[in-house]
Design brief:
Bound molecules: 2-oxoglutaric acid
Distance between the termini: 42 Å
Number of helices: 6
Shape: globular
Radius of gyration: 19 Å
Number of strands: 14
Largest sheet: 8 strands, antiparallel
Order of helices and strands: HEHEHHEHHEEEEEEEEEEE
Helix content: 10-25%
CATH architecture: Sandwich
Length: 328
Amino acid sequence: MARNSPCVSADDCGVFGTDGVVCLRSVLTAAEVGQLRRAVERQIAGLHQSRTGYDFESLARQVWTPGRDVDTGAADRFDMARLKEMVGADPLARPLQEEVPAGGDGLFFYDVAAWKHDLGVREVAFDSALPEIAGHLMQAAYVNFWEDTTFVKAPRTRQKTAFHQDLAYFQIEGDQCVVVWIPLDPADLGNGVMQYVRGSHRWGETFAPNVFVSQTPFAASPEKRCPDIEGAPGDFDIISFIVEPGDVIIHHVKTVHGAGGNPSDRWRRAVSLRYCGDQVRYRDRPGAIPQVGVTHGLKDGDRLLAADYPVVWPKPWPGLRLADLYGL
Ligand SMILES: O=C(O)CCC(=O)C(=O)O
């Protein structure tokens, strides 16, 4: 089999182009997986002091309890009271929750931008095999790192991840962007592995971001609502992979995807890394999620040439450790 890079073949590129998603096996080392696990442990430990960390499981309970104010502690990245209003005003909104065995409250932990303060996350995001793989899949001349996001579902977590498309969450124009979902535990449908609508990146549609706990679109987005995949799964070609730590699943930024809850007694920890290619331009999209701590003054139409979006591939010389050059 012809190989384009150490970890991605011409066949992999073909599958990615056709399906909008490809699973690559044994891409990350045990040490790299360990670095991400330790970073995620630190993020979860800081949940109640964090301005960016959320438990969407608890949030969903608050959203679906009429008359209850939403309390997200120190976290202030999203206007959750507004989110509750949007869900309340959406006639199509309904809880997207699975039945779980009794015991425990579950946890659907979400956080972002660990790369800014965590050297281990930066090393995986910048100096693992991933930037080069992303470059080959996107056929890009160079690759910018966009950001990292953490998604953890503890055992007995009811909340699903509503199906969505990533593009309109990001302040970008162009679809030369990939999302790398990195499982930190063995994952399958039983504990909420990601699911993808095969070929949906070629539908020619941009969908509004949704509010995670429901398919309700962000009010500020002018894009159309994502189809109700959960409501009619049989109408869509949904695929998933059984993965081990070290494997990665890479999807195109326009591929529609979602996940179940985690009714099992196993954890489902994951980190998601987002990379853009040289053809992407900055665009301050209405309804995109505000990024944490960005300092650039990019205008619509600019290349992503700013310290907020490090160029991670190709490297100026082999063996250069980019992770040491960035961070707060
Ligand atoms: O892990 C999840 O539940 C959601 C992940 C996701 O939507 C993403 O990585 O883009």
